[in-house]
Design goal:
The complex is a heterodimer of chains A (about 475) and B (about 450). Chain A has about 475 residues and is of the alpha/beta class. Chain A contains 13 helices and twelve strands. In chain A, strand 1 (about 45-50) and strand 2 form a beta hairpin. Chain B is mainly alpha-helical and about 450 residues long. Chain B folds into two domains: about 10-290, no CATH class; about 300-445, no CATH class. Chain B has 23 helices and four strands. Chain B has helices spanning about 10-20, 30-35, 40-45, 75-85, 90-100, 105-110, 110-125, 130-140, 140-145, 160-170, 180-190, 230-235, 240-250, 260-270, 275-285, 290, 300-310, 320-325, 350-365, 380-390, 400-415, 420-440, 440-445; strands at about 190-195, 200-205, 215-220, 220-225. Chain B starts with 11 loop residues before the first helix and ends with a helix. Classes of the chains: A alpha/beta (about 475), B mainly alpha (about 450). At the A-B interface, helix 1, helix 8, helix 9 and helix 10 of A face helix 18, helix 19, helix 21, helix 22 and helix 23 of B.
Chain lengths: ~475, ~450
Amino acid sequence: MSGAFARHHCDEFSRSTLLRRAVAEAGQGLPAIEPGMPAPAGTGLDRRRFLSRTLGAALTVYGASALGPRILDEGIARAAATGGAGRRVLVSVFAPGGWDALSLLYPIGDPRYRKLRSTLAFKPGDGPVFSSDRRLHWHPSLAPLARLHARGRLTVFPAIGYSHPDQSHFTSRHFWEVGALDPQSGTGWLGRLLDVVGDNENAMQGLSLDGALLPSLATARVPVATLSSPADYGFDSHNVWDVPGELLEEAIGSLGAASADPDPVLALAGKTIEQSHALHRQLGRFVGKDGQVHINPKAKYPETDFGRRLSGLAALLDANFPIRAAALTGPGSYDTHADQQGPLQDGATQIAEGLAAFQADLERRGVAGRVLTLVWSEFGRRAQQNESNGTDHGAAGVAFLMGTKVRQHMVGEFPGLTKGLDGDGNLKATVDFRSVYASLAEQWFDVDAARVLPDARSMPRPRLVA
Amino acid sequence: MPLPVYSGPFGPPQAERLLWRAGFGPRPGEERALAARGLEGAVGRLLTTGPDNLVGKPPQIDGHRLFPLDKFGHDHLWWLDRMVRTSRPLTERMTLVWHDWFATSNETVGSQRLMIRQNNMFRRAGLGSFPGLVTRVTENPAMLLYLNGLESEKGAPNENYGREMMELFTLGHGSGSTERDVREQARALTGFTATYRNGYGWIKFRFDRNRHDDAMKVIFGKAGPFNWKQAVQLAIEHPAHRTFFTRKLWSYFIPEPADDETQAALEELYVQSGYSTRQVLAAILKHPLLYDGPRMVKPPAVYLAGMLRTLGDRISTEDWIWLSIQAGQLLFYPPNVSGWNDDRWLDTSTFHARWQMAERVLRKHSYQPDHTKRGTVPMDPDKLVDRAVSFWGVRLSDATRRSLLAYARKAMATTTADDDRQKKFPPMILNALRHLVAASPEMQTA
């Protein structure tokens, strides 16, 4: 785990990521690493792994301690049959690390831009003009998003954030996840939404496409699940191939013969092996000889983990699995304190190509009308670049809402680099993320935002949905 | 009251089970040597303490030694190495018991140095008196950091340690301690402090009289100006403690609860011996249920260390870190203050991790099918299974053996009149059989 993070990240970011990973590994209570750091929403939820026969995949279910595996599976099937399928869906994509809004939509038309970004500034024409505000140009790698924007498929929030911004990755991300400026909150905003619109048995209503339960989805009442890739569950043996390798799978299953043993513990071990074998076989239906999962995408996705997750999600939606909210972590790591251009370009390229493919896939499958995708990061970065060709933690950032049903090209405006900076030299927010959540709750899910967001009353409701 | 003692035959199978429950399994031949001592002699041997003599090659990762105090995961490898090479398996196993009993996670402590210091304390004091151990735990730096002991001072007591000391370490939940007892215990436990040095962390852990609340307290109905040592003693003398202690210690070694008579006798032994862990442990290890009763699932660390111990392998890869995380037991990182859940070691996900562990262990022992000389490996399915079983020295049930044999026969049947397959398949099949034995229910449990 150490060494998994490049040097341009700050320690806190790596550590908070590790801490969250540990939530996934332990699935149990997790002490805060230092006083004042909020525990991620969902900490302490019980979790259980089971095989969904309807889905043919491994689900880890959170918050369903009272339900048996069969009930869970039947719950998913029932939700699909009774109209849980075909309903509107929100997909949340998190860009980790706090991405640099002033590079993703660079304000080439602002007189201070080149001064503040002496070595990082793009030139006019590097990227396409942002048609909603011609002072801004798209990062060259975001050209696919510019095209979606031109087609009316993308709403841009050029300066989104909240008042009194917190510059800790951990805390700011937590605020976005729980939909409130509340370090204590233990449920995610999507989780609370599912507590209202979801049901007690359909664990797929909230789907975390991640090794861990993403905290946005942490519920108080109804079950939610993480879906692991079928390809991750292999049983290979070193220096065994050909016929001996092909027969191995069956042999593993036959080790479960001990499940009939009079010794209860030996029998339990045998049973676990039988279950593992059954799981492996089920998942095998999706895995080709190349070890890849095959789900017949209708668009060309980038060959990345992000692309695979999104294409899997599109296939599940097309197959009418009863999903209401899904969350995943986007590619790239945006905590670019040093030598920012390369990592930012890589991340932006992957995220833009993945999102564009996802939208095209959904449209060709004919399900795009019921899917909106929100793309966000925990904050933007300092307007003044630092001495290391990087940028430090800032305040307002940029977010996107993608789908055929988006209503506007832009919500909130770019405040400019003169009056638009706060006392710390960070971009001021012109839209509060909680008002976006409130609008989505009401306009997309038809739920009174006050039931989901503690601050709903004080939040304006931009028109987001056509 | 007499304690039941196992009176059946004490041969290698019984000695093997004892070595798995009270250690990390036998080295080749170890179960025979232990069986020759008889039950009394064997338990006495295990309970003998003294300097440890680590047998075999020390760890080596890419040509380097371990950095247990600094490098992430090397603390885990350091302890695994001790489990693999120890000559005092029960001391080492009890260290694991105490790590679970007084669960402390480096996730909060943030210092491998302090965690290993605590670990060595468990190793040193683990078989002595239990009150002595709780006393050491109470002033242990890692525990002080884990359960907020440094933030507890006169006028502002922090209840965290006091509450867990009673609920999880000595009395059990709802066993006679009230919220008032918790508050008063917290006051008695005030006074510990330390110094934070930038770039180094916490140092100079000490008791500071000025931070201690020395006024009167009422704990369990007794009044006095109790200090932290008395706080521990009060919990030990609470009538619920003897039951809690004996049941909990028992549960680490025998999966079924003790019958009422055994339970009463253990409690009596515990009190009369002056709260001696060693005495109670000796009685548990000689109890008939350990030998006649059901098997237990090996914790992941025991499963892994056991395989390496059997094969005489050293720690030579950092892969054990992430595989142990997936299997559900990264040492020094228990999930919370109540330790690991010993009833939940095996599921489809952790079994998959154990399969991968076995794969990694076996890699260096595997035959190269393209470069194995004919005749090195038998062609007969029965003999192939025998070779795989004796490789691990494990005893298999008939059902499992039949499964292995069916695999070997089926695979060998495809080699008829195929010269290339006759050369390559036997080594492959033996590789696979060894892996299947390692994954078998018999190897997952003991």
